[in-house]
Each structure stands twice: as structure tokens, then as C-alpha cells.
């Protein structure tokens, strides 16, 4: 199954219609459910959880589960009450007959989970304890049913990431150690994280870094097809403050203060255009994304709207904990992913420059087109005679360089 991490804290004024629209959009691209990131301090939590579950029940074929965010303090009773409240909903994600539960961090809370299990009648617990790493998680196998890794971006000062850590998790989850029900831990599941992008600049939370994302969305899906984890979680559906969203905000109050400067005008909706192909391949156990026969060929492109040298770097570092500036690591490129039924041609034109043609393979292909201060203007993406024009690349930085990307697709979204 494929889930998308959903920031419930950004839903203060969400309506039933908002939930219906977002669930419909997720289902259309093959996503099976939302992992509802829930903080104990959100006073609108009860109302929005109810609206979400009701909308998913009406939609059918879409599941939800709570991902407890341990950046907040939780009591055992709070956790038990939330699980018990929704565990019988037809929209609750259930694995092996038990409600699926996850977390964002919280290893310090680990010893409370057996109490929660007893008070809820059983759960299927797949936490994100990435701060422990694979070997640390291996010491907790008697408490959990699986593990989720939040590590979905290249580390500081690295352009790429590989699946090495995912394989370490798989090995850790196979250690000969009985689980909580006395079953061999080859029943422990692995949920692999995939993300399209990362950039955050929120001084109020001491966050200001960019992770290399030029080919990340493509690379990570290729790694998922290689690793074939039990579950996949897209990070994220709607975290605008960290630029990892694949669903655009529809109201200003969905964007955390300070992030509007780099989110507005930077649509990410087109990231979803290639998901049906990759998700279908993953679910079929394929090692390559093959185009779905009933869908059109598709291409997407993402790019930053200014060269890295066009303005002040804003003290943004390259990767979380990185010791170099992002401006020294980011690549000024237009990134293109195409999924075509047969060999084909994708054409990219930047401003008044010469069109660049790229030959696609059958299935998925990735290309990069460099740009600099001398190659500016709108980006045009062409496939099968259809053209989409995206926003200009320019050198007009009013404040500092925006490291977020804009994403376009062809055929254009209908």
C-alpha cells in the first residue's frame, strides 16, 4: 500500500468538501490512504479527524491512520482514546486485523506502547524512529510490528541518496528475535519514505536548509521499485513549510508563517502526474515503471525560478546539519521525468533559446537541462505535440534566493 503523510495541523479551517477533494485527488493518482500527522496541542484535532474519517468513509476505497507526532507531549490516555475512537471506522487502515498506527519520532515513549496495545485491544505499530537508525530500531523489535524511515533526502553536502539505509532497515527487521506475540520477526514490516523535494527557511524553528532534490523524485521511486518495501509513505502531501508538498495550498492559512515567501507561486501539483505509473509498478512488483495503457504519455519538469547566484543565499545550508551553503551545492537545472508507452521525444525550450530534444525510452526517463544568468525566460515542455509553458526563470531576487521549485506537466492538468 502507498500512503501520503498529511499534516493535520494545517487544517484549521478545512471543510468536508476540502477533505473530499483531497481524497479524490489522492485516489486518482493511486494513493491508498493518508497518514494523519497529529499533534496533541491542535485544538481543532477532534473536528478535523472526524471530518477526515467521514470523508474517507463516503469515498470508499481509501484508508486513514493516525501518525502521532512526538514533537508534542502525549499521555497514554490521549493516545488510547484516539485509537479507540476511530479503530472501528470503515476507513481505518487495518493490517493483520489490527488498526495501523505510526509516529513521527518518539522512541523515548517506546515503553508505553505495550500499555496502549492492551488498552486498545491491539494495534499494528509501525513507528518512525529514524533518530535511532536501523540498528537502534533492531533493539525495539519486541515492541513494534514494523518500522518507517523518515530518511528520504540526501544528507548534508550530498547530491544523491541511495537505498543503502533501506536495506539496513530490512536486515534489522529480520533479526532472529520474537515479536510481541511470539511470532518470528520476519513478520515485521518496512515502510519506505519517498519525497519529491526539501527546502525550509523558518527562523522561528531554527530551520534553514535545502536538500538536493534535482533528481530525487525520480531516483527514490526507482529505489522503491528495487527495494520493494511492504509499504510506501510519500513525505508529504501538504507540508508547505518544508516544500515537500505534492498538493498545492488552497488557502493562505494552510501555510505556516514565513513559508508563504517561498511557497506562493510554486505549484507542486504536477509531481502527482507520474505517480499512477510508479505506484502501479510498485504494487505489481516490477523493477521499472511501465506506462499504464489507459493513460496518456506524460512528462513533468521542476526547476527553481532563479539561478543560485542571482541573489543572497540567505544563510541556507546544504542539507540538514550541512556545513556548506546550499548555493554551493544546488544545481541550476530543469529536471524532467517522462513516462511514455514507446520511445518518444520530449522537447524543452527555455526563453528564446534553441529547443532541446531528448529521446525517451519505453517506460520512465530522466533528463536535466542546465541554465544560468544568460539563459532566462519561460520554460516550455512539449510532448506528443502538446505544450505547457511554465513560469519564467529570472534573476530578480527581491530578498534572497528561493530554493523551492515550481513543477509543470504535459499534458496540462485538466
Task: Please give a structural write-up.
It is a single chain. With 414 residues, this protein is of the alpha/beta class. The chain folds into 2 domains: 2-283, TIM Barrel, CATH 3.20.20; 298-410, Sandwich (Immunoglobulin-like), CATH 2.60.40. The chain has 9 helices and 20 strands. The longest helix is centred in the N-terminal third of the chain and has 15 residues, at 45-59. The model is unreliable at 181-185 (pLDDT under 50). GO terms for molecular function: aminopeptidase activity; glucan endo-1,3-alpha-glucosidase activity. Keywords: Aminopeptidase, Hydrolase, Protease. Pfam families: Glyco_hydro_71. InterPro entries: Glyco_hydro_71.
Describe the structure in brief.
This protein is α/β, with parallel strands linked by helices and 414 residues long. The protein contains nine helices and 20 strands. Pfam families: Glyco_hydro_71.
